[in-house]
Amino acid sequence: DTEVTQTPKHLVMGMTNKKSLKCEQHMGHRAMYWYKQKAKKPPELMFVYSYEKLSINESVPSRFSPECPNSSLLNLHLHALQPEDSALYLCASRRSGTGELFFGEGSRLTVL
Amino acid sequence: GNSVTQMEGPVTLSEEAFLTINCTYTATGYPSLFWYVQYPGEGLQLLLKATKADDKGSNKGFEATYRKETTSFHLEKGSVQVSDSAVYFCALTPGANDYKLSFGAGTTVTVRA
Fold it and tell me: CB A70: neighbour CB atoms within 10 A?
């Protein structure tokens, strides 16, 4: 099973809402990632968790709050977002020793 | 620092044509190199990879060779299909245990029937 599953696939929220994006993998990978991707652009790294600890935060605004409850799950909590935060949010996990990332299909977020 | 430069396109070609997407990189040491593909409305999928000089990665008719002397990892396919229409990203990681993946800008490829 080489899948990373993300939910929801689409999310529309207002600027005062609180919502969460979820990501799950069962490949035994111990590093998990959140990326943000705008149309026609490469993914931009947001956060990396390694062994359930936050190891990289690319200066992401605090309105994005990651959480790694266990080695298979990764959440991204969203609060007080801005319209410019509308994007495709991609989760990925990394196979140890190869640098190879496995991506989910993404959650398309629209902030009104 | 580490960076990847790839031709941005867009590239439009006919079915059965030859495809080349150029990718060059800047990195210290011995990076691992990747091509990812993103089909419309989907996430990224690993297309192929190479972890050391002169390695050739191949998958689905696509090939790329890790050339350290020219710091390049050009993607080629001899005969494209409409289903190859996608965005292609060249990427590198400085080492197999490094967490950061640096992406190129992406090349949009459209194949016409």
Answer: 8
pLDDT score at A83: 95
Under an 8 A CB cutoff, do B105 and A42 touch?
Answer: yes
pLDDT at B47: 97
Residues of chain B with C-beta less than 8 angstroms from the C-beta of A9: none
User: What is the pairing mode between strands A44-50 and A53-57?
Assistant: antiparallel
Within 8 A of A97 by CB-CB distance, chain B residues are 96-97
Instruction: Please give the single-letter amino acid code of residue A31.
Output: A
Sign, CA dihedral B40-A96-A49-B101, equals: negative
Asked whether the beta carbons of B28 and B95 are under 8 A apart, the reply is no
Alpha carbon distance A94, A55 (integer Å): 14
| Mutation target among B101, B102, B109, B110 for the A interface, most CBs of A within 10 A | B101
- CA separation for the pair B9, B19 (Å, rounded): 12
- Alpha carbon of A94 to those of A11, A71, A105, B100, B108: distances in Å? 25, 12, 15, 10, 25
**pLDDT under 50 in chain B at which residues?**
none
SS3 label, residue A44: strand
